[in-house]
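Researcher: Next sequence.
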Amino acid sequence: MFSKDEAALLRKEFWTSFGKSFPRKWLLYDTKIKGFSFKFVADRKKALVCLDIEHPEDIASELLYDQMLSLKVLLETEIPEVIFDETYELESGKIIRRIYVPLEAKFSIHNKNSWRDCYEFFVETMPKFELFFYEYEEFINQAI
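Model: Next structure:
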């Protein structure tokens, strides 16, 4: 097991290594839609590429999620393994709306041998989400 400090250093090393191995400007929070952001998730048990909908106004979150649901078939054409979850619980206990793709391979941020597969998964999956967003950005934005 790792101490809290060792785990923090390992997480930092993971993300720094990812940034150096795959230097690229990702869309992430720069969607220009409040509460609508893309994220990379990597922890002790899983790795995900996500679209998180967490607008401060619940009705706006609901409308954005419904708008994405209306595009579900199109998104599944681009990313067949995508999962829609209207009540995704974060480690903090907060409930958000999340549309995500999990890394199928066994992964732990504490296992450096699994990092390369995760990085490749991130680099392969996030551009699909980004391209989809750019193609349907106007339509998504109409939700609110």
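Model: Residues 82 and 134 are 17 Å apart (CA to CA). The chain has a mean pLDDT of 95.
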